[in-house]
Amino acid sequence: MLQVLPRIGRRRALQGSAAALVVLGLLSWWLLPVGEDSPSGRMKFSTGVRNGVYERYGKLLRTAISQDMPKVDVELLNSQGSPQNIERVARGEADFTIAAADAVEKYRLEGAPEADRLRGCARLYDDYVQLVVPRGSDIQSVEDLRGKRVAVGQDRSGVRLIADRVLDAAGLDPDTDIEPVSAGIDTMPNLLKNRSIDAFFWSGGLPTTAVRTLSKDMDLRLVELGYLVERLHKQGGASRYYRAATMPADAYPLAQQGSAVPTLAVANLLVTTDRADADLTAGLTRTVIDSRDHIGDEVHAAQLVDLRTALFTDPLPLHDGARRYYRSVKP
Questions:
Q1: Torsion angle, CA of 262/266/270/272, rounded to 10 degrees?
Q2: Could you tell me which residues come within 8 angstroms of residue 248 by beta carbon, excluding any fewer than 6 positions away?
Q3: Gap between the Cα atoms of 321 and 331, Å rounded
Q4: How many angstroms separate the CA atoms of 193 and 143, rounded?
Q5: pTM assigned to the model
Q6: From CA 256, how far away is CA 227, in angstroms rounded?
Q7: What is the number of alpha carbons within 13 Å of residue 258 lying toward its C-beta?
Q8: Bridge-based pairing state of the strands 72-77 and 41-46
Q9: 92 SS3 class
Q10: Chain segment 76-113, per-residue pLDDT in tens
Q11: Are 130 and 215 in contact (CB under 8 A)?
């Protein structure tokens, strides 16, 4: 016997159609980029010193942005590092930047201009503190730097900030107990190679190309730093952002010769201010997360960007646009 299906009333049909439209709308929202329209305009992104990880990361991120947000024109600005990056963004001289958490906290604690307007978009990857010496050097610890010529980074650089704190934790005055040399990663390798310095401090993602290249030109060694973490924490303030970490043996194979090196690490943050457009910020945050593997092929540190931890941008509150992105991808 033929079964007659019940007639669907007009009201029920309309309700079903409305429900279907809602589902379709939600699916469209999920699949399309954050924001109704693709953001447009010009973005200034402050990176870091030439040949450093910040600069390389910025260049690769600009390429990813051009694909995800083709209407956004990205201008990259070189800098001396985190302190200058933070100041630029706070003052409106750049829209976004990468900066280490210790430098961000120092800027805030000092009550620097517009510090209360700083916002975080993502926790990126960790910088590893590296003290590089010739393999045959008698420098076995930070304390052994007394009286030595040491490149400590340039003024207003994140390296200088960390080097000064590490030296202080080892009981050394950065100005009088060593011969400080102002230099960046673009010149440090040649200075060490030419014996113009005895050691240099560097803080960056692993591996840093300049250090790896230098290890092919001369015999190097990395000095252990992890034993200083408790003394650093006793300094208080921004030093609480340093943690003990291990530099894997394959970071610089020629220099480490199969041995991991205990050292210090500090998290990097993607930073902006509350002035940044919410759609642009959400789109940039999405690009940072989605491009992790592609960028990580060339900047290995970027492989550590993790959606589960990216929203923890301490000491900065999340930007509203970034928060909207994280909510959109929440399981």
A1: -160
A2: 206, 260
A3: 18
A4: 22
A5: 0.84
A6: 18
A7: 0
A8: parallel
A9: coil
A10: 999 989 999 999 999 999 999 999 999 999 999 999 99
A11: no
